[in-house]
DNA sequence: GGGCTTTAAGTCG
DNA sequence: TTCCACGACTTAAAGCCC
């Protein structure tokens, strides 16, 4: 593979060509050295180490995996993918070599500034615990069949393993490995088929325990959860270490299963910590900045598997960081901040810097609505069109049934195909109407599939997205649906963070490359490292969990008003906090204000905006306030009298845009005489979608911009809901 | 140039 | 002897049209 030890990037301009050339030489040398052991350069997910695989003969595992894979279509595809990554790395190296000393010095300043700004957001007030059940599926199977105890076993099939117990891991067998390779590694391996009924049952038992420590815990999967144990530590007068021990004991007593725990100031660190003393162990990282920084910087990424532990950094990203930038430790993420800012988009660079600082989420996100629903099936590769269409019909039927169960309808249908050579293709169509019936799905999916024929396929998948926001839309209109979504979902959480900051995009683009200039972008990042980890956010006993849509419909205006008032009060409190924080940490606070936190983003607008926007005072009574032009009135200073849209006073620009919209609408009405005043912007869009032709509906220049900006109420809620 | 859609790709468990 | 999953999420780029 690539030489990993060379420092590619020096601040001297002459070093670029030297490094590049040296790299080539070293690479060739290493490649030549690999000739006898070609398996060394064949990396897959399952050749990496995992908990319980410390003593494994890695060379043997790699050789067997290589020998069993070599020559297969899968192997060829892996080689193609590997070549693409190499190309990306080469591009990045070349761009790196073009950076002058002046460039680098500039970018380093940008990075240093961002590091300071991110540092201000550090929150050490919460204690998070991450629980990870040890080899969960395998442990459950052993519980129900004690004969398996002490023997190497894995859950899954000959084609793929879901997990392996610790006895099997000693042989290099692990999750996501094909069963036939695992058998070769460990001939006595016992294979047990998956039984999700059992795993769900035991998962429920563990969740009952989690619930006692944090009723709002976040279930990341069947066998992982995040708990905010700040309150329970206080209530019981116990340390986090004692709580972790106590929880693990309870889990064991009530399920017979062991688990590992990590405790830290945020979820990202807690997750890293839970892996340190696996299995059946725990690791506590004190809520102390120095301890965190020492912990992060003393961990070599590779050795501690830290990179792969961090959500959002997978095989490709790890490869790029190491081989293109020579970043091997979290500490180096900070040291090479200038390079990161120069070569990655702002959101990606922010993410890497946050990881280097050991920052992560400390708030409890809301429940999220799913964004898509899909199914896919793998089968023996075939070109038989009759068979392929039969598979498609089966999938359409299954998908339709799944959608029916959840009461979903959607208008974007995506067909996924994997060819016999493992090439993955996706083809999508966005429809005018929302569909859920198998006949509708099949009809549109067939059309997409026909365009791909003839083809030899080994997998077909169907996905529906862009869901209808259910019947509540019709009853409440867009603003209320936002409240509904706020209560029942955290969908807006992520969006709001981005949107919040995007409000200040111009002023915040501290010299980062435009995203359009980036040809190698890291996917899945925003400024908050924790959001990269896909938490399913299954909050049990959430404060609002009993408020389904029907409840929301019956919930009265007073109740919502009260919520809003409370939240508005929080804004004022946050403003005060932020003013204090900024005042005490920085002299040039202007640049920092929008970056402090999501809350700060919201609040900073209050600080920067109209000083008369004292939302706390104005939210107490119903006030109809005229805007600058005196034509639009805001009930309680947040609700538009024309369409009912809720735009808090602090959202000055959004309000102005909203007003502009109504003015434009009025003008249009006068001109055309056909405008319906009762429709809100979003309703109007939906209305148009139904009526327009396939092409026309795409181009709704007049409304979308307003529509996008016009969801402030849920953004507002989320912003104010976050802790500073 | 901006908004929307499609497509590709990465990541997680 | 068997021959590398599935279902969710995300960001980004490119193409299209106004």
From TrEMBL:
Keywords noted in UniProt? DNA damage, DNA repair, Metal-binding, Nucleus, Transferase, Zinc, Zinc-finger
Domain UmuC per the UniProt entry, residue ranges: 128-308
Q: Region Disordered: which residues?
A: 602-624, 672-707
Residue spans of biased composition, Polar residues class: 602-614
UBZ3-type domain residues: 633-670
Identify the Pfam families for this entry: IMS (PF00817), IMS_C (PF11799), zf_UBZ (PF18439)
- Indicate where this protein resides in the cell: Nucleus
User: What is the protein's name according to its record?
Assistant: DNA polymerase kappa
Per the UniProt entry, what species is this protein from, by scientific name?
A: Cucumis melo (Muskmelon)
